[in-house]
């Protein structure tokens, strides 16, 4: 069938293909599956990958999207492009102690382009790009799997042959519709993994192009080898895993291009066999190419190390508890358990969760824990596959199993905790690339079963059923990623012991104003993790707003005791102490917060309020001025300065501050209102009137705006207009303080004028 697809080729090609078929087994031979021309195979894969995740296109920004996109200043036009190369993925300086050292400037650049084209934070454009990227990657997988499963062969005209069209299509469909990919596609932050995978695959395909003119491995293009190194570097600038493609290219070169038998090579090396000199490695250029790959990889890692700095990323015990265990045995056994769970997510991606930390997976602390069975099962399977990959007499089997294991394991190494601590327990997004190896092994297993099975069509229907289930699971999971409420609630059944899940459900409820329900989830988060300071802080905030000050103080005090540098908790503790009229303690808490976070405008604002309550007016003005210097758009701080200066009779200074504030925030109606009051007292009636009217236009239902404009007209002598706005104010707020009295005074004055006129 393959030969029939290439009838246009010269006869010598047909003979070559015939000889190849005789010398090397073909996976497609016994497989009952669709046989489509390359173009249509790619169309089918693109369509399936689109159907799986299309319903995520209009989702919100969820979970990590807030920090990586909405709160990331690197996306905004005012941030110099050069800053992207000195900041981490979240917009923090790489030199900062709090940086996670995730250096992905090219991914952030695509977010910035999204933001600029959309004219703001509109998630549709971000989601559409992610879906397009996954479809593109899935289409490229048809070519990649055809090489990995069928080998690398070119026609005399330099066109690459697909020697495994059926199995490459099956593997690509398995990849396109794998539910574990939902986080990468439906979560916008997953673009790092998608871009990394795109350039990862392009690097691999580029490396394959180096052998386009290859004859027995003797000829190769240095240009394409260097291109693959550059593409690997680009992949790493999208996400750290990208660098692993250079190692995989070397493995592919050794197994496919040079057809090395690894076990035989290891035995010869151990015995210092002189026949190695005649192995032809130098002649075929393998060592030279591997040297190029290693040199390129070492250079890339060195440059990244220089940019990133020598300090390790800052993670906490709740992020990755096993890595903080004192016992080497506990660390090793839990790392291996995590590997087994990752393998299970590839095999059975039914239980998916946006976050697997915070007690979701309790530590294994002894060999009596029944979960040890999972480790045993994992290593039993891995050792069996490795033995077959090394010892099988079938060279075709050795090649496919080794490549499958290579693509499964090598891209996972940066997330394995073997070389450095990572900031998660399990992350579904990091399995995006290793799933390539899983698809190879699954497809190879299917071909072996097909060879043995008498009813091949039943087996094909079973695999088709798995694909359909995966497509439906992808669609369902994508819909859960469309909003934070659905995403967080979906995790409650998967990880009920995860404190962060309860925290996020509570935070989502609090943001929607449902404080009573939020309190319940925050309390559960603190119960599950008694050191969860962020849950304590948020719960303390809600209790503070509900005037349950005693418990709020206890929670916030405990939070800063557990984490002494938690600036937000110190500030909130100060607010509670201020409400309890313990002013000295409140002041100390505010200054402690500022000590731990130098640029903290909200804390300066609250400190200013404390000083105002204590009639320390100069200190209050200085605190609010600091808040506006750090955050020029801090409307509340500007307003308080204007009001304080107004109340203390400093009208000229109040006017100057008001004008300065409106230059920075020209559309803030509260600032217009405050400045209009000052101008009215300074008898600048016309300008005051204009500002009042502008403020009312922006916020027509503010009773105080109409009431104070009425006072202005009252002073100015425009009594009819004063009467009109008093009445509007009283209609909006019948119990507005002072307005009714002023209105009654005006009515008496109007009655007196009418009597005089009469």
Strand content: under 5%
Task: Give the biggest sheet.
Answer: none
**Oligomer class:** single chain
- Supply the number of helical segments: 35
- Helical content class: 55-70%
Mean pLDDT: 88
Uncertain segments are 1-11, 13-23
The value of Rg in angstroms is: 34 Å
The first-to-last residue Cα distance is: 111 Å
Q: How many strands appear in the DSSP assignment? A: 0
The secondary-structure class comes to: mainly alpha
Describe the protein's architecture and organization.
One of its GO terms (biological process) is endoplasmic reticulum unfolded protein response. Its EC number is 2.4.1.109. 66% of the residues lie in helices and 0% in strands. It has 758 residues and is mainly alpha-helical. Helix 27 (601-613) packs parallel to helix 29 and helix 31 (669-681) runs antiparallel to helix 32.
What brief labels describe this structure?
758 residues; mainly alpha; 35 helices; 66% helix; disordered N terminus
Task: Please give the structural blueprint.
Blueprint: H1 2-5, H2 11-23, H3 38-53, H4 65-70, H5 105-118, H6 123-150, H7 165-176, H8 182-186, H9 191-209, H10 222-238, H11 244-257, H12 262-270, H13 281-284, H14 286-308, H15 328-347, H16 372-391, H17 395-409, H18 435-452, H19 456-480, H20 484-494, H21 499-511, H22 515-528, H23 533-545, H24 549-562, H25 567-579, H26 583-596, H27 601-613, H28 617-630, H29 635-647, H30 651-664, H31 669-681, H32 685-698, H33 703-716, H34 719-732, H35 739-757
Helix pairs in contact: 3-6, 3-7, 3-19, 6-7, 6-9, 7-18, 9-10, 9-11, 10-14, 11-14, 11-17, 15-16, 16-17, 17-18, 18-19, 20-21, 21-22, 22-23, 23-24, 23-25, 24-25, 25-26, 26-27, 27-28, 27-29, 28-29, 29-30, 29-31, 30-31, 31-32, 32-33, 33-34, 34-35
């Amino acid at each position: 069938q393959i030969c029939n697809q290439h009838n246009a080729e010269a006869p010598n090609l047909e003979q070559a293909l015939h000889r190849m078929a005789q010398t090397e087994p073909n996976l497609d031979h016994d497989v009952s599956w669709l046989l489509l021309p390359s173009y249509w195979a790619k169309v089918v894969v693109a369509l399936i990958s689109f159907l799986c995740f299309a319903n995520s296109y209009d989702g919100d920004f969820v979970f990590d999207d807030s920090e990586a996109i909405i709160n990331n200043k690197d996306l905004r036009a005012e941030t110099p492009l050069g800053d992207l190369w000195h900041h981490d993925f979240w917009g923090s300086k790489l030199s900062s102690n709090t940086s996670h050292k995730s250096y992905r400037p090219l991914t952030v650049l695509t977010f910035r382009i999204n933001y600029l084209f959309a004219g703001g934070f509109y998630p549709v454009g971000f989601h559409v790009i992610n879906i397009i990227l996954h479809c593109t990657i899935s289409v490229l997988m048809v070519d990649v799997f055809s090489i990995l499963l069928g080998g690398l062969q070119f026609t005399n005209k330099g066109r690459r042959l697909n020697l495994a069209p059926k199995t490459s299509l099956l593997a690509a469909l398995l990849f396109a519709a794998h539910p574990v990919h939902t986080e990468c596609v439906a979560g916008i932050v997953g673009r790092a993994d998608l871009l990394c995978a795109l350039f990862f695959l392009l690097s691999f395909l580029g490396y394959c192009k180096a052998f386009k003119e290859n004859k027995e491995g003797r000829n190769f293009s240095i240009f394409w080898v260097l291109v693959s190194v550059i593409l690997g570097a680009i992949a790493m600038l999208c996400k750290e895993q990208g660098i692993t493609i250079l190692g995989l290219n070397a493995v592919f070169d050794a197994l496919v291009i040079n057809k090395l038998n690894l076990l035989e090579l290891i035995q010869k090396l151990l015995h210092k066999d002189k026949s190695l000199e005649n192995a032809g490695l130098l002649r075929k250029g393998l060592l030279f190419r591997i040297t190029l790959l290693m040199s390129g990889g070492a250079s890339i890692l060195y440059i990244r190390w220089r940019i990133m700095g020598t300090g390790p990323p800052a993670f906490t015990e709740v992020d990755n508890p096993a890595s903080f265990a004192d016992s080497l045995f506990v660390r090793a056994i839990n790392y291996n358990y995590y590997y087994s769970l990752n393998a299970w997510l590839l095999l059975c991606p039914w239980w998916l969760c946006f976050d697997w930390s915070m007690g979701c997976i309790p530590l294994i602390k002894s060999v009596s824990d029944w979960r040890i069975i999972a480790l045993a099962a994992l290593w039993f399977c891995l050792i069996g596959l490795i033995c077959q990959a090394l010892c099988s007499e079938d060279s075709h089997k050795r090649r496919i199993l080794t490549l499958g294991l290579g693509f499964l394991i090598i891209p996972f190494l940066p997330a394995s905790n073997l070389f450095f601590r990572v900031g998660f327990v399990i992350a579904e997004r990091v399995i995006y690339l290793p799933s390539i190896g899983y698809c190879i092994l699954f497809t190879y297993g299917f071909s072996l079963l097909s060879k043995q099975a008498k009813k091949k069509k039943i087996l094909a229907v079973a695999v088709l059923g798995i694909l359909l289930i995966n497509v439906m699971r992808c669609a369902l999971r994508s819909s859960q990623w469309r909003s934070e409420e659905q995403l967080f609630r979906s995790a409650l059944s998967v990880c009920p012991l995860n404190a962060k899940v309860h925290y996020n459900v509570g935070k989502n409820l609090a943001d929607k104003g449902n404080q009573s329900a939020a309190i319940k989830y925050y309390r559960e988060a603190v119960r599950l993790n008694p050191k969860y300071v962020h849950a304590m802080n948020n719960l303390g905030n809600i209790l503070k707003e509900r005037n349950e000050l005693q418990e709020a103080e206890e929670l916030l005090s405990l939070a800063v005791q557990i984490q002494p540098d938690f600036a937000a908790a110190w500030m909130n503790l100060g607010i509670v102490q201020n409400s309890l009229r313990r002013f000295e303690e409140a002041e100390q808490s505010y200054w402690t917060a500022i000590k731990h976070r130098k640029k903290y405008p909200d804390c300066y604002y609250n400190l200013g309020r404390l000083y105002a309550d204590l009639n320390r007016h100069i200190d209050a003005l200085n605190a609010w001025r600091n808040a506006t210097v750090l955050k020029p758009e801090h409307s509340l701080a500007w307003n308080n300065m204007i009001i304080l200066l107004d109340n203390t009779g400093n009208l000229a200074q109040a006017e100057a501050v008001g004008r300065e504030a409106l230059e920075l925030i020209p559309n803030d109606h509260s600032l217009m209102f405050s400045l209009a009051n000052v101008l009215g007292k300074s008898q600048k009636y016309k300008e005051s009137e204009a500002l009042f009217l502008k403020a009312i236009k922006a916020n027509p239902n503010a009773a105080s705006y109409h009431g104070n404009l009425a006072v202005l007209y009252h002073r100015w002598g425009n009594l009819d207009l004063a009467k009109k706005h008093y009445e509007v104010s009283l209609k909006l707020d019948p119990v507005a303080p002072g307005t009714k009295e002023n209105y009654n005074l005006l009515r008496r004055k109007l009655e007196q004028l009418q009597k005089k006129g009469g």
